[in-house]
Amino acid sequence: MLVQFFFSEFLVWLPWAFSLVTICLVIIKCFFTHVQIFTGLKKLSFLYFVWLLIGATIFFDLSLSIIQYFIWKSSEFSQFLLPPYQSWRYFLSYIFMRFWIADILSLFPAVIFYTILNIFQKYRSDIISKDELSLTLLLCLLLGWPQSIIFVFIFLIFTIALAGVNLILFKKKNITLLPSLIISAIAVFMFGNFLISICGLSILNM
């Protein structure tokens, strides 16, 4: 029982640690690529991080689901929530709502945002690259649901503000979207729950 408790608590915090490490790696990659230091990082696409994150998320959710089963199985009370006392549908519905649904919902804003920027990139490849498109998908998945929705709105605000500053102060019409992506992701990662609360989106928390 103690072992199950330890691993369940460990796996709850592990995604947060994984997300923080991944964001740090993304920032380091962006910095080194921009200043032309350690150019080998250019070959490491953000798409690799996306697949790594998806694989890790499935591992986390599956592990928590299995641990939940054995915790219920070992209890003289909660074992009645499992077969043969209850159908498998009850347990599967529980773990789906408890562990899986937030990660599945985060795919929707991520894919929609990625698709819109992908269409935009075909006409303005000077503003965002293919690798930065993968970065938008990665950041949305990292931030999760519903923080990814806030991320999209903050990104749009930062982009409009940056375009205005460039146009007014520097007389430049062209901008790159990478700074807005990084700043927006850091802002949401640090203050996401607060922003969700003041925007009245707490009901979306799973």
Tags for this entry?
6 helices; 206 residues; mainly alpha; disordered N terminus
What is the secondary structure topology, with strand pairs?
Blueprint: H1 2-34, H2 46-74, H3 88-123, H4 130-143, H5 147-169, H6 178-198
* Gyration radius from CA atoms, angstroms: 20 Å
How many distinct folded domains? Answer: 1
Low-confidence stretches: 1-8, 34-40
Query: What fraction, in percent, of the residue positions are helical?
Result: over 70%
Order of helices and strands: HHHHHH
Query: How would you classify the helix and strand content by structural class?
Result: mainly alpha
> What is the 3D shape?
elongated
Summarize the biggest pleated sheet. none
Number of strands: 0
Task: Describe this protein's structure.
By secondary structure, the chain is mainly alpha-helical. It has one domain. The protein is built from 6 helices and no strands. Helix 1 packs antiparallel against helix 2 and helix 1 runs antiparallel to helix 4. It is elongated and about 70 Å long.
Give a summary of the structure in a few sentences:
This protein is mostly helical and 206 residues long.
